[in-house]
Amino acid sequence: MKELKPESRSPAIAAAIILLCAGLVIYFMPSVVLWLGNYSPYLATAVGVCLVMAFFAVFWLRARYQRRRGK
User: Fold this and answer.
1) DSSP letter string over the chain?
2) 35 neighbors 57 (Cβ within 8 angstroms)
3) Of 15, 34, 28, 26, nearest in space to 54 by CA
4) Backbone dihedral region of 12: left (phi > 0), alpha (psi from -120 to 50 degrees) or beta?
5) Please, what's the b/e burial string for 16-41 (b: 16 or more CB within 10 A of its CB; e: otherwise)?
6) Which residues contact 14 (CB under 8 A, 6 or more apart)?
7) pLDDT at 31
8) Mean pLDDT throughout 29-57?
9) In the prediction, which pLDDT does 22 show?
10) Is 55 within 8 Å of 25 (Cβ atoms)?
């Protein structure tokens, strides 16, 4: 197995963490949205949209951070 260099290890770890968190959110999202739908369908919709948008916001913020660092 090829060893990762220190400069390529950080993005690999960040990607693994992001994918793990996104997987957990996507796994539990239907249960959370259905539970909230018992109280208010509008609240369930808003939470569902926020969770999906958060996935893309993480990548947008990471790209801004890397651009600012000059990578």
Assistant:
1) -PPPPHHHHHHHHHHHHHHHHHHHHHHHHHHHHHHHHTT-HHHHHHHHHHHHHHHHHHHHHHHHHHHHHT-
2) no
3) 26
4) alpha
5) eeeeeeeeeeeeeeeeebeebeeeee
6) 62
7) 93
8) 92
9) 87
10) yes
pLDDT tops 70 at residue 1: no
pLDDT confidence of residue 55? 84
Amino acid identity, position 25? V
Residue 70, phi-psi category: left (phi > 0), alpha (psi -120 to 50), beta (remainder): left
Residues in CB range of 62: below 8 A, 6 or more apart: 14, 18
Q: How far apart are CA 51 and CA 30, in angstroms?
A: 11
